[in-house]
Each structure stands twice: as C-alpha cells, then as structure tokens.
Amino acid sequence: MIVTLKPSLTVTDAQAQAIVDRIAPGRRLARVGELLAGEISAVFEIELAEGPPAFVLKVYPETMHWKMQKEVGIARLLERLPIPAPGILLADDSRSLLDLNFVVMNRFDGRNVRQWEPSLDEDETFDIYRQMGEALRVIHGVTLESFGYLVANGVVQPFASNRAYMLSQFERKLSGFRELGRRPALAAQLDAYLKRSADLLDGCPRPVLCHYDYHSGNLLAERHDGALQLTGIIDLENAIAGDPLMDLAKTIAYSVRDDETKRDGLFAGYGALDRPDGICLLQQISPVRAFPFRWNRGSKPMGQVTTVRAVPSERKSL
Length: 318
Known about the structure:
By secondary structure, the chain is an alpha+beta fold. It has helices at 13-23, 67-78, 113-116, 122-139, 162-181, 184-197, 244-256, 260-270, 278-285, and strands at residues 29-34, 42-48, 55-59, 88-92, 102-106, 111-112, 148-151, 154-155, 208-210, 219-224, 227-233, 240-242, 294-295, 298-299.
C-alpha cells in the first residue's frame, strides 16, 4: 500500500496576500505557485509586485504537523553560521490562514546542484562539491548533548552513545526486514555483521548536528560573475544528533557514488575526519570503492585532504 503524506491543497491569491501582509506589510502579491520540490510537504513560491524579495511557503501534512516546529528549531541553530541556511520569517500553527501548519522562508537564488551537474566541467564539479564539503563541516561544528532523532525541543529519545543509538536503529530496520523480507538467513547474516563491526561506532564521542539528507537535490547554486556558488541548503526536517559520518555516507551514496571528481571536491572542502576509524567506517557504510588515492603533493588518504587538487592520472583505487 502506498501512503501519500504530501498534502493536496491550493493556496489562493487571497490567502497568499494575507501571508504577505504578515511578513512584508504594504507589499502586494504578484503570484503564488506550487514548486515541484518536497515529497512530504507542499511547497509554494510567493513573488511580490515590483520585485524582490521572494518567499517559500512550506505546508506540512496533518500527520507530520510537528515537523514545522522541528524545522524552525534547526533553522535557528544554523542562522548565525556562515552558510546559506534558510531564515524562518513566519511559523504558523494557528490554522487561521491555512488549514495546516506552515512556515515561510526566504527564497534562495538558483536551482539545485543536481540540475546543474550535467552542464558542469570537471573543475566546476570539483569546486561546487568543495563548497558542499565546506558547508557540511560548518554544520557539523554544532555539537549537541545526546544522540538521537531531533524534534522541536531536542532529542525525542536520547542515547548516551553513538553505538547505542545506531544499534537501536539497525535493530529497528532489521526487525522490519525480518517481518517483511522473509529471508531469515540473510537477516541473521546482517545481524552478525553488525555485531562484528559495532566497535567502529565508538569512534564518535559526541553528537553533532547532522542534516541527514545532504545531497545535490537539497543544495542550491547559482552563477555569480561566471562562477557557480552554493546559495542554499534546504530541507532540514530530517536532522538528527549523531555521527557526522552519517551525513558523509549519505552524500556519497546519493550524490557522489563512484565519481572521483565529486569525492575529491567534497573532502577537499570538508577536510580531515579527525578519527582513525573514519575511512574504515565509510568503507563499510558507503558504496565508494576507491578510498586511498595519490595527491600531487605527497600521498594522503581521504579524510586528510588539503585543498590541493588530485591529479586524475595519479588516482588509484583499492
């Protein structure tokens, strides 16, 4: 059975103007239109007569109404950081303007990096992924008190260690696999593998803020003076307090995959992993096969990357 979460609704000009009156008094609505972005929330673009600024209206489904306050909380954690994170201009759960909870944010210039990628050459690809890595490192500079899934007021079920949190998540997923997959032998193999590798989870001593959906579809970019620049980081609603390698692994799995230029750029921007087990753990949880590679100023493994560009002909894989 397919469950649809994204609310199906129309925002009228009158409703949009009422929202504009709250966030930009005296300004007139030019248009409101639905954006294709958003798998859970309905997302709309609001433009004003006589030009900028423009806004993004995000409306949450009834079953996920609590995600509004969570996203507001995460945005506030990021608002003072030197990264293009969304600013929350209005958060409304009164149901007086719309029948569902919603937020209004500033609209970023540009389109998502995934849409840019087919037109980028190798140097441009490297550079935008370098910027992605730099921004992710800044996000990971936000430390939190306990591991777990974040809601509006902190972690909903706090865990004292990364191992405890991750093993609980693995067990939850494995339980579902045992019930629905009907392959008990494979489930037993996976369980044994996790138990053998669990000590790798001890390498993260404290939780940091993880975007947990950090991929090229959730990162916006635009050209300025000919150079492609990262302009926006969106969709904060999945954030967790966890191991920063969770974000890196997802970025690799969803966006980098086996593209060496993207990988080199990402880690040139992100920098050192600051833990001896980092490379090993990423090898375990991501699809990248080629971790060690040569650099044109000596040989450095991934996670000890400087901003020096890798020479493609000198890269080598395991």
